[in-house]
Amino acid sequence: MKLTSTFWKLFLLSLFFAPAAFGQSDGDYRSIATGNWSNSATWERYDGGTLTWVGSPAPPTFSDGQISIRNGNNVTIDASVTADQLTVETGGTLSINIFVSTSGGNDLTLNDGPGTDLVVDGTLVLGTYNLLIGSGSALINGTMTWTSGTLGVATTTGSSSVISLANNDVVKRINSSFTNNGTLNWATGTSSGGIYFNDGTFINNGTINEQFQSDRGFFGESGTNSFTNNGTFNKTTSFVFGNFNVPFTNTGSLKGQGTFNLSGTVANSGTINPGASPGVLTASPATITGQTPVLNMEIVNGTAGTGYDQLNVTGTTDLTGTALFVYELDQSAPLQTYTIMTATSGNFTGNFAYVLIPQGYTLDYTNSGETSITVTKNSATLPVLWGNFAAIANAKSVKLSWSTLQEVNTSSFDIEYSSDGRIFHTIASVPAKGNSDQISNYSYIHTTPDITRGNFYRIKQIDIDGKFTYSTVRTVKFNKGDVVPVLAMPNPFKDVLQLSIQEQGIRITLSDLSGKLLFNRLMQPGVQQIDMQNRVSGLYILTVYQGNEIIDVQKVIKQ
Predict the structure, then answer these.
(1) Which of 67, 101, 133 is the last residue of a domain?
(2) Which domain holds residue 430?
(3) CB-based burial of residue 311 (10 Å sphere; 0-12 exposed, 13-18 middle, 19+ buried)?
(4) Cα 310 from chain centroid?
(5) 3-state DSSP helix/strand/coil % of the chain, to nearest 5
(6) pLDDT-derived band at 380, boundaries 50, 70, 90
(7) What digits encode the pLDDT tens for the residues 280-310?
(8) Nearest residue to 151 via CA among 129, 169, 176, 171
(9) Class of residue 372 by CB neighbours under 10 A (exposed 0-12, middle 13-18, buried 19+)
(10) Does residue 68 sit in the same domain as residue 102?
(11) How confident is the model at residue 18 (pLDDT cuts 50, 70, 90)?
(12) Are 450 and 421 in contact (CB under 8 A)?
């Protein structure tokens, strides 16, 4: 009898508290049909007194509780609504998409309540001059179809979200902050479809796929505006993207075809990747001049655009501060000259800050004023075959060691130095062996490195006839006079992560963001490599140990 009494007490208590377990409170709303927001038949309301869902006498507003649009229901805002704590469940749709006039009229205003004020796990449709505005915030985890209209609340998209800027001839406006962490497919019409900013901030951490039908871009209408690309901006058509009165910052990847016509305020420290492995991309001089980008150029065979990457610039372009990385994707690429860069209506000035080319290739850019830059895959008989090149700090000096595997009519090696990675000058010259088919070793000690920042070194090999090639760039960094024990270069990297090990007894581990250990090894001083060809693109954590002590943690990015 005692057990029976206890059972019924627990059972009754469970019934009493069941609504709370499911998050239901007095005044919550949920959709029960497809229909207009203003139609009470679209909704039912939770009655906290009877603990049941009842028919709704009126549509929900911001003064009510949680509002849910359920799976299978499409709720259309047919008159201006102010709401808060609104959720569009997976399979549900919220449409702000009824045209009244060019000044709007059927709009959704989000109040700023606890947490995120609009969560879309299903679908959001914004268009026909309507507004999503207010002091609240929105999170899009599902899909958003943005045909037109104004995004006027702080909006963030999830990593699996898909945002479609539908193919039409009506503008879209960002009047707040918009952060994309998913995939944004940007289609336009033949005469319009740009994005207009009014005190708008657009941050891309995911992927933008440009799908233009005409030249389009960003337009600053009023206020302070900005666009920052930390992810991938992928041009898929031959049309022009331009930024007009919208400052453009790139720390991620600009890739694809067509033209990036950047102007005004530009900051580019990311990568430029022509084509879709390979292809031809055109860029304005502002994309490179005064910037510090990495140019990734891929070679498969002998035809520009289909066989190897090519970057065209539309005026005089200063290469100072730019790094050039050339990758041979197929070792059977023919022995020939590849025009990897061209300049129209101008020429190239300055020298690359870094150059990394495959063994057996030479860079045919030796001075300013040229209108094209080429690399040549040579025959088996090369002026010089580079071996290893290492820069190792020892107390307050840096020892440079390099080797050649073969030399033909080689005159000398100039040691070039830079304290900023952009402007190099010769600090010494070492005579070459001249002609050799054996390994030849060379060294030089730099006694006056800058112990407050980075030190950049490269070797210029000069032939008897005056032609020359460069080694890769090696870097030694100090921190308050102490050597930075491990330097990862380049970063971001493609398939191989190169590490400059500066001290004895260094152990390296590499993990992904889930904490999974991918690499764990004791490393010798010098330049070492970690093969990452079979790893997915993204962020990895490099941890440096000396003994059992962690002495440094670095973030490295695989493209």
Answers:
(1) 133
(2) 384-478
(3) buried
(4) 21
(5) 5, 50, 45
(6) very low
(7) 999 999 999 999 998 999 998 888 888 999 9
(8) 176
(9) middle
(10) yes
(11) very low
(12) no
* pLDDT digits 0-9 by tens, 310-368: 999 999 999 988 988 888 877 778 889 999 999 998 999 988 887 878 767 888 886 67
Place 102 in a pLDDT band, splitting at 50, 70 and 90. low
Examine the pLDDT at 80 and tell me if it is beyond 70: yes
Residue 412 lies in a domain: yes
User: What's the domain count of the chain?
Assistant: 3
Structure tokens at 86: 């609104």
Last residue of a domain, one of 439, 457, 478: 478
Q: What is the pLDDT of residues 127-164, one digit of tens each?
A: 878 899 999 999 999 999 998 889 999 999 999 999 99
Beta-carbon neighbour count of residue 52 at 10 Å? 12
Supply 241's token pair. Answer: 């993207």
pTM higher than 0.90, yes or no? no
Q: How far apart are CA 187 and CA 511, in angstroms?
A: 38
**d(C-alpha 294, C-alpha 288), whole Å:** 9
Question: Residue 423 is part of a domain; what is its CATH number?
Answer: 2.60.40.2060
In a domain, 101, yes or no: yes
- Claim to verify: residue 427 and residue 491 sit in the same structural domain: no
* Residue 234 maps to a domain: no
Structural domain contains residue 252: no
**In this structure, are 430 and 529 located in the same domain?**
no
Q: 457, exposed or middle or buried, with CB in 10 Å at 0-12, 13-18, 19+?
A: buried
Residue 469 shares a structural domain with residue 502: no
Report whether pLDDT(206) > 70: yes
- Left (φ > 0), alpha (ψ -120 to 50) or beta: where does 181 sit? alpha
